[in-house]
Design a protein that fits this description.
This protein is an alpha+beta fold. Among the domains are: about 170-295, Butyryl-CoA Dehydrogenase, subunit A, domain 2 (Beta Barrel), CATH 2.40.110.10; about 435-545. Helices cover about 55% and strands about 15% of the residues. The chain has helices at about 20-30, 30-50, 50-60, 85-95, 110-120, 130-145, 150-160, 290-295, 295-325, 340-370, 375-405, 420-425, 435-450, 450-465, 475-495, 500-525, 530-545; strands at about 65-70, 75-80, 170, 190, 200-210, 215-225, 240-245, 245-250, 250-255, 255-260, 270-285, 330, 335. The strands form four sheets. Strands 4-5-11-7-6 form a five-stranded mixed β-barrel. A two-stranded antiparallel ribbon has the order 1-2. Helix 10 crosses helix 17 (about 530-545), helix 11 (about 375-405) runs antiparallel to helix 12 (about 420-425) and helix 16 packs antiparallel against helix 17. The chain is globular. It binds flavin-adenine dinucleotide. Flavin-adenine dinucleotide binds next to strand 3, strand 5 and helix 13.
């Protein structure tokens, strides 16, 4: 009778085993910030080995439910989430996952420390990182645009570390007409009347994807219809609004009806609903008609979170695959001792380190921009690097998750191992917060506006020229060739212009994204032996070294 049973992989401490994150933090943070950051990361790392995976499993096993009516037929629109989802909210507040980005004592390093914490949290959070992304982005927008009373009241909740005061925000942009092209938005905003500052409206329309629907507030776009001239069509006619959601026990939501929760491929614990707004009270943020321009600060934050989630998912997938490789035997040897399997894992880890290097560069630049210490050139590069990072890393996250499943053989395809979730949750990273194509076109827009893509290419070229020993010579030559190739490709595309330029945007963007990863990893590799080996490997994988 068969007596063999395979040991399951064990959730590792994701910080203790993250040499890449250690190296990034060591090179980016001054000593006085570094030691406290390492302590906070160590606490989170411990949680990734025990508390967080257990909460994530429970939250996935008990997905949210929409209860439209009570037993007596009253519309209540209750969204029931699992206690584990609530525990993830509490955990997020206690570990200051949003608040760290606004911690005055951290100055320009706030986003770097925050990115490290989120890198550890995201992949073990059953996508609680999604509500956090929108919460952080809402804080950014309110700080930049909201009237003082609203700003002070809401930002205090969004950045609270006391779970009793911590609130989250949604972001309701996508309508049935489209998520990429919000210019087709049908929702209208009607003046609420009464005394006030002219900023009170009621909203009327349908929002087609609203994640974190249990949040206390949301930012959304609508077209002002004041009964005078017809509303301005297209994206120029859109204004930005803040909705404070009023839920009255037994009486539903004020001015909002929940149609249903989406039945999604992944992100199962995250409530994502379809809503009708019919009289939802809202406050206008910023100038009327400037809605699309006004969400740019929000997009920087949510896209950075997306890139962090990609790096995080890749790191966890690699860590689980490596753990399993030490437990599984094939052909008389542990998988980890089989040269080809060991190479497969090392390649995945090199790619993950490169992704992390780009993510941490973006976080550092965003921190400097928000602290007011970024140069004009750094601000310009940040504008292009964020979409580049989001689109490039999301594609890599899907590929890495797929490879990780293969590392477990058949077990990787079996639901109750929990492993298929790695792939399902990675797939969304390419879609929300701007698809690959949409972000590639965004880069062209950024280039046309202030030359930000050229600024990135110029910076990469200068970095490539500065590469030196101890970096591998073949890898360095490949990087320099690739930068020249990218610059030539960009020039040809710009000369071709029109549809040809648009058609080439995605290839150009992915090429630039991989090169940026290689060059930021090279910076880390100058002082770190393992990073240097990963730089060599990544250059071989992506740049043909
Ligand atoms: C799990 C989940 C949660 C979500 N949560 C939210 C949320 O909380 N709030 C919210 O507002 N939205 C949310 N979304 C919606 C998401 O942001 C949109 O699905 C996304 O922006 C794409 O929009 P779309 O679905 O309308 O696709 P479309 O815009 O119709 O895109 C379809 C395809 O066309 C391509 N495309 C579009 N325009 C161009 C172009 N000009 N050139 C080339 N290709 C193009 C796209 O790349 C894509 O491949 C969520 C989506 C998912 C899956």
């Amino acid at each position: 009778m068969a007596s063999f049973f395979q040991d399951a992989p064990v959730d590792p401490d994701l910080f203790a085993g993250d040499a890449a994150l250690h190296a990034e933090l060591r090179r980016r943070l001054p000593a006085e910030v570094l030691s406290a950051a390492l302590e906070r990361c160590a606490a989170l790392g411990e949680a990734t080995a025990r508390e967080l995976p257990a909460l994530a499993r429970q939250a996935e096993a008990q997905p949210p439910v929409h209860v439209p009516y009570d037993a007596w037929g009253r519309r209540v629109d209750e969204l029931r989430t699992s206690p584990a989802w609530e525990a993830l909210r509490v955990f997020s507040a206690r570990h200051a996952l949003v608040a760290t980005g606004y911690e005055p004592g951290l100055g320009a390093h706030a986003r770097t420390v925050q990115a490290a914490l989120l890198h550890l949290f995201s992949a073990s959070s059953a996508t609680y990182s999604c509500p956090l992304a929108m919460t952080d982005a809402a804080a950014r927008v309110l700080l930049d645009l909201a009237p003082a009373e609203l700003r002070d009241r809401l930002v205090a909740g969004l950045t609270a570390t006391d779970p009793a005061r911590f609130i989250t925000s949604g972001q309701w942009m996508t309508e049935r007409t489209g998520g990429s092209d919000v210019g087709g938005t049908e929702t209208v905003a009607r003046p609420a009347g009464g005394a006030g500052d002219g900023r009170r409206f009621t909203l009327h329309g349908v929002k087609w994807f609203t994640s974190a629907t249990t949040s206390e507030m949301a930012l959304t776009l609508a077209r002002i219809d004041d009964g005078g001239a017809p509303p301005v069509p297209g994206s120029r006619g859109l204004s930005l609004f803040c909705v404070e959601i009023a839920r009255e026990p037994g009486r539903g939501w004020r001015g909002i009806t929940v149609h249903r929760l989406k039945d999604k491929l992944g992100t199962k614990a995250l409530p994502t609903a379809e809503l009708t707004l019919d009289g939802a009270p809202a406050t206008l943020l910023g100038a009327p008609g400037r809605g699309v321009a006004n969400i740019s600060g929000m997009l920087n934050v949510t896209r950075l979170y997306n890139a962090i989630a990609s790096a995080s998912g890749m790191h966890r997938a690699c860590a689980l695959a490596r753990d399993y490789a030490g437990r599984r035997v094939a052909f008389g040897r542990k998988l980890i001792d089989l040269p080809l399997h060991a190479t497969t894992l090392a390649d995945m880890e090199a790619e993950t380190a490169a992704v992390l290097a780009l993510v941490m560069e973006c976080a550092a630049l965003l921190g400097r921009a928000e602290a007011g210490t970024a140069s004009e050139d750094e601000r310009r590069r940040l504008r292009a690097l964020i979409p580049l990072a989001k689109l490039t890393t999301a594609k890599q996250a899907v590929a890495c998750a797929s490879e990780a499943l293969e590392c477990f053989g058949g077990a990787g395809y079996v639901e109750d191992t929990g492993l298929p979730r790695l792939l399902r949750d990675a797939q969304v990273l390419t879609i929300w917060e701007g698809t690959t194509n949409v972000l590639s076109l965004d880069l062209l827009r950024a280039e046309a506006k202030d030359g930000s893509f050229s600024a990135v290419v110029k910076d990469l070229a200068a970095r490539a020229e500065g590469l030196a020993r101890p970096l591998d010579r073949v890898a360095v030559a490949a990087v320099r060739d690739a930068v020249r190739g990218l610059a030539a490709h960009a020039q040809q595309a710009v000369q071709a212009g029109g549809d040809a330029l648009e058609a080439s945007a995605r290839k150009l963007a992915l090429r630039a994204g991989h090169l940026a990863e290689a060059l930021f990893l090279a910076d880390t590799a100058m002082a770190d032996e393992l990073a240097a080996e990963r730089f060599r490997r990544f250059a071989a994988l992506r740049l043909g070294a």
